[in-house]
């Protein structure tokens, strides 16, 4: 199935001069766009970002009985971009939709519309559901989409997808010796408000940068101070990671076991098959 994937802007916070150049681990990326903010939209615990105009759900009219049809259409973003999936495969891959489409004879349009969802991430979710391979992020923009995809995986209760996505993000960060910039932390704490492995990983990389990277000499950047000052939960988590990493410099979050960063409430624990090169 061909997917029309739009270009999506990623919201960020303003640049701080002290964080633009790091001695060891590189901060992933920074630019001067405005910070992300929470929004009250349908199913808004998913991620954000809206792109170009696309097929919409006109007036959020109640759709046909979706779980009795061969396909199910989901809508993303403020323009309600449509993505159509095979119903049986969707239900097999997502406990969230298995429950929804089994228990609700005629789902309301608002139940299949995710206005805060990253449109590209939802298209990636559909591709994954239909067996397409995810190759992982390769740059600043694609990293944002993978963060959005992880948040959708949490919402749609797909541990398999969430675990695959965090593996790809960790590999990208390890290969590029990257750490999470402040706006990535702000994004995750805004749109994934409950604790999760990816949120913890990103905070840990930021703490690593503070202790052993470019900020080790110059202190926290202004943008990092701003983000920490605006979110008490993030600040506490950041301090906790500082304590852990300061006691053991070998605990680089980008290296080591994949399974340590996985969710396994409904899936079997991993069978470790040896470390990847970037895990050494």
TrEMBL record:
* Source species, domain of life: Eukaryota
* Residue ranges, annotated region (Disordered): 16-71
State the name under which the record lists this protein. Answer: BTB domain-containing protein
Organism in which the protein naturally occurs: Friedmanniomyces endolithicus
């Amino acid at each position: 199935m061909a997917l029309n994937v739009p270009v999506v802007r990623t919201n960020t916070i303003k640049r701080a001069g002290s964080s633009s150049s790091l001695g060891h681990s590189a901060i992933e990326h920074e630019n001067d766009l405005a910070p992300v903010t929470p929004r009250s939209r349908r199913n808004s615990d998913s991620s954000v970002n809206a792109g170009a105009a696309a097929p919409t759900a006109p007036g959020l009219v109640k759709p046909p009985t979706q779980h009795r049809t061969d396909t199910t259409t989901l809508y993303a973003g403020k323009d309600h971009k449509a993505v159509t999936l095979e119903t049986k495969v969707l239900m097999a891959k997502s406990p969230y939709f298995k429950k929804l489409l089994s228990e609700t004879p005629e789902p309301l349009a608002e139940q299949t519309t995710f206005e805060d969802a990253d449109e590209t991430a939802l298209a990636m979710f559909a591709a994954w559901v239909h067996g397409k391979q995810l190759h992982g992020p390769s740059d600043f923009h694609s990293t944002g989409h993978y963060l959005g995809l992880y948040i959708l995986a949490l919402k749609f209760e797909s541990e398999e997808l969430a675990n695959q996505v965090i593996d790809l993000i960790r590999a990208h960060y390890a290969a590029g010796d990257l750490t999470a910039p402040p706006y990535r932390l702000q994004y995750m704490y805004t749109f994934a408000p409950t604790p999760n492995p990816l949120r913890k990983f990103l905070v840990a990389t930021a703490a690593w940068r503070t202790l052993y990277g470019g900020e080790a000499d110059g202190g926290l950047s202004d943008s990092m101070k701003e983000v920490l000052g605006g979110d008490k939960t993030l600040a506490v988590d950041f301090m906790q990671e500082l304590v852990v990493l300061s006691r053991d410099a070998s605990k680089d979050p980008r290296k080591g076991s994949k399974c340590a960063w996985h969710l396994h409430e409904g899936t079997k624990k991993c069978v470790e098959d040896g470390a990847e090169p970037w895990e050494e």
